Amino acid sequence: MQYEEFLNKVQDLIGPAQPDEARRAIIATLETLGERISGGEASDLAEQLPEELKEPLHQAGEDNEEFSLDEFLGRVG
Question: Which of 13, 47, 48, 77 is 20 to 30 A away from residue 5, measured at CA?
């Protein structure tokens, strides 16, 4: 999937909003996911994403934090 297509799908899900809001939501989600999964898992996932979305996952370290779904959603928010 191309970046613009991915961005448009997220924009459709969050409804009418500022275009930058979808980008911020995607980056916040990927950064938080990068905190939750190991560096190897983050790299594997990043390889499946458009180039513009890889950086937040490449910042993931080898150590992951364990936190609940509620904590995940709070961090993304």
Answer: 77
Q: Half-sphere exposure of residue 19, counting CA atoms within 13 Å on the CB side?
A: 2
Distances from the Cα of 48 to the Cαs of 1, 52, 53, in angstroms?
Answer: 9, 11, 10
Q: Give residue-wise pLDDT tens across range 2-23.
A: 999 989 999 998 887 677 888 9
pTM of the entire structure? 0.82
Asked whether residue 9 is domain-assigned, the answer is: no
Domain encompassing residue 29:
21-76
- Residue 1 falls within a domain, yes or no? no
Whether 56 is covered by a domain: the verdict is: yes
Collapse the DSSP code of 2 into the 3-class scheme (helix H, G, I; strand E, B; otherwise coil) and give the result: coil
Gap between the Cα atoms of 9 and 15, Å rounded: 10
Q: Give the integer Cα–Cα distance in Å for 69 and 77.
A: 12
